[in-house]
Amino acid sequence: MAARKQLHLNAFLFACGHHGAAWRHPASQVERLTDIAYYEELAQTAERGCFDAVFFADGHSVRDPAAGGLWFLEPLTALSAMARATERIGLVTTVSSTFYTPFHAARMLASLDHISGGRAGWNVVTSMFDAEARNHGLEEMPPHDERYSRAAEFVDVALALWDSWDADALELDRGGVFADPAKVAPIHHRGKHFLVDGPLNVPRSPQGRPVLFQAGASEQGRDLAARCAEGIYAVAYDLESAQNYYRDVKRRIRGAGRDADAVTVMPGLVTYVGSTTEEAHRKKAELDALLPVEQSIAQLSLFTHQDCSEWELDAPVPDLPPLSEFTGPQGRYDTILRIIEKDRPTVRALLGTLAAGGGHCTMIGTPESIADDIERWFHGGGADGFNLMPPIYPDALTDFVDEVVPVLQKRGLFRTEYETATLREHLSSPPQ
Amino acid sequence: MAARKQLHLNAFLFACGHHGAAWRHPASQVERLTDIAYYEELAQTAERGCFDAVFFADGHSVRDPAAGGLWFLEPLTALSAMARATERIGLVTTVSSTFYTPFHAARMLASLDHISGGRAGWNVVTSMFDAEARNHGLEEMPPHDERYSRAAEFVDVALALWDSWDADALELDRGGVFADPAKVAPIHHRGKHFLVDGPLNVPRSPQGRPVLFQAGASEQGRDLAARCAEGIYAVAYDLESAQNYYRDVKRRIRGAGRDADAVTVMPGLVTYVGSTTEEAHRKKAELDALLPVEQSIAQLSLFTHQDCSEWELDAPVPDLPPLSEFTGPQGRYDTILRIIEKDRPTVRALLGTLAAGGGHCTMIGTPESIADDIERWFHGGGADGFNLMPPIYPDALTDFVDEVVPVLQKRGLFRTEYETATLREHLSSPPQ
């Protein structure tokens, strides 16, 4: 009997949670953001829920110290420590192809793969902010095309470096040779962006190649994902957008000559779990009420090209002009229209939804109703799994692990224990 | 009563040990070189011995796979894991100022400092091999002066980034601000080598500034050390060379307007400990016997400008011309002359001494005789401590910790337990 297709789950770790006001909540652990044990405990919770992986985004600048949501520990160092506090869960780190050299990236990821016994993953990003560029020697970010051209070559070099050690290169023959020089080969890469001789100075790691993730939404991002990613982080507020993205990216994967089923597409997912729907909404409302209103309204005015300052906070959002009449950035406005159409939120609830993961799918309800929604996306061609973005840590993650995961397991959608050892195996990706 | 001046001890971790043939020894753990638990256990052994720190050197290329002595795990990731397996011992990593950006270096070190609760140290190196340059986009290494000019600016930027967060910047006031923007300040650095706006995206770490180490032997290296290092790794085969170096570098530290007593000078130290002098020599001879003879003799011929291929391996080294008549590189030849004069070794023993740490001090004997030698260097103005380079791991470290450390403790030269929490405090350096 062929194994039934299984759902995949990542926990996206971020500060006190993905809601912009999470740190203000009495249950947030904001005092522990530089404490590695905080992140270890979150990873252990996700591991208790048999998640495929935990995932760190990353950035290279400080934006608004007063408002929170800053970076704290650097992900490669943090995940190396967390590797020793966990046993099976994957450890995915974001590494920027614009600010690292491919040798550093390949080496540190291979090292993390050794330290974790084959659980390392790499979310390739090109970074975006000029403030980040100005921390790494550039006056501004290179243009989008340039960044993606560099990213594509960066990934090729990293893959070549990981392949520069044959799996059986180490002989460790005390009376003979340490490693077979014929199995540790330079790569002599000379490209548009990089000069890298190799070989890597880390022997081949348990996964051979740490698992590649990509989250690009642009044409070039999707093509890079199609060509090399084994996991894809997506953004979709509703099932229809998810299906459109899913179809498009799977088509591109097939177009790149790869097995589309072997690539896991995971939209971001914000969940509020309650024993009743009302309790779930109350959890969201509690966080939404902590948002600094003036600032959020000003941002909404910017997003909608409306003066929202006179809007009644606890009344439904007034009608907005259709997308076709909107002259600003389309993506965000489209998401706002979809949120309004799907949820009919109050102004404050809309601000809260935007403040928790922005345009990502938001499911609010009982464990059963959320499992229903997940199943609908999973079987409806919208997702192979989800990148869970708990609005507040640790509570929203604990809720999901203790309440939703058992329902998914009962339905046969999700593993009840780890049956595999490496992240690539968890994702059912072919060995590399 | 003023505290009596205390000795400082680092354990220099390197593969199977510092003897070139260590991996060939039956007691080596060569099969575990990619196993993080191996390094954790070594750090725990050093911590049992109350060492100030463990230390990783680093390199960015693979030289001779057949001969061993390769790099395995990347130090920043490895030490982050090791931080969680230890409680008090310092964790010093080498980071190259030629291949990193100062933002990456400052950030990862600050992260390690958080993860370890204030135990991070940074050995600043400029790297040296063209093979390393060709892994990071350069056809060859920049010239020595250029590298040191970059290193000096690199350190200044890193220090400024660490200082970009005031210690009390984080308010974490749930009803107010997250961090006080006035206490998280950009650095707006525009120098010859770097453009870095800052601030760092990691809040001020427990030590404020991770502890700086330097090992430069050149003029520029000594000056950089004098200006900013809190610990200095030195190379001296005998006490006289150690005293010369010690005097020179302490003079430079005072010249830079700093307190010379607050900077710990630690020559490398290779030890063979036995319950008798004979047993200690037998331990060395066992390792020396594992050296591939032809290769070592060829190297010795190169170092001495002699044809050594006809020398009797187990006879004393024949007389060599004085330094004044030698036309090759002086430093290495001078060391060879000193080894011959001090130890009257056989040819094989000379090869072994050169194969274990090269020109570093080598002490062979009982715990008491080695403690005597250490005391002589320590009280004789040659060292404030030592960077221990065990010829073979774990045995030579275990011997030192279990046999020599108790003698040093009994003599009141070394701590019997950790009385301080951070690496800077262990080193009795002033807070930064």
Automatic annotation (TrEMBL), chains A, B:
<keyword id="KW-0288">FMN</keyword>
<keyword id="KW-0560">Oxidoreductase</keyword>
<dbReference type="Pfam" id="PF00296">
    <property type="entry name" value="Bac_luciferase"/>
</dbReference>
<keyword id="KW-0503">Monooxygenase</keyword>
<feature type="binding site">
    <location>
        <position position="218"/>
    </location>
    <ligand>
        <name>FMN</name>
    </ligand>
</feature>
<feature type="binding site">
    <location>
        <position position="58"/>
    </location>
    <ligand>
        <name>FMN</name>
    </ligand>
</feature>
<feature type="binding site">
    <location>
        <position position="148"/>
    </location>
    <ligand>
        <name>FMN</name>
    </ligand>
</feature>
<keyword id="KW-0285">Flavoprotein</keyword>
<dbReference type="InterPro" id="IPR051260">
    <property type="entry name" value="Diverse_substr_monoxygenases"/>
</dbReference>
<feature type="domain" description="Luciferase-like">
    <location>
        <begin position="18"/>
        <end position="384"/>
    </location>
</feature>
<dbReference type="GO" id="GO:0016705">
    <property type="term" value="F:oxidoreductase activity, acting on paired donors, with incorporation or reduction of molecular oxygen"/>
</dbReference>
<protein>
    <submittedName>
        <fullName>LLM class flavin-dependent oxidoreductase</fullName>
    </submittedName>
</protein>
<dbReference type="InterPro" id="IPR011251">
    <property type="entry name" value="Luciferase-like_dom"/>
</dbReference>
<dbReference type="InterPro" id="IPR036661">
    <property type="entry name" value="Luciferase-like_sf"/>
</dbReference>
<feature type="binding site">
    <location>
        <position position="144"/>
    </location>
    <ligand>
        <name>FMN</name>
    </ligand>
</feature>
<dbReference type="GO" id="GO:0004497">
    <property type="term" value="F:monooxygenase activity"/>
</dbReference>
<feature type="binding site">
    <location>
        <position position="94"/>
    </location>
    <ligand>
        <name>FMN</name>
    </ligand>
</feature>
<comment type="similarity">
    <text>Belongs to the NtaA/SnaA/DszA monooxygenase family.</text>
</comment>
<dbReference type="InterPro" id="IPR016215">
    <property type="entry name" value="NTA_MOA"/>
</dbReference>
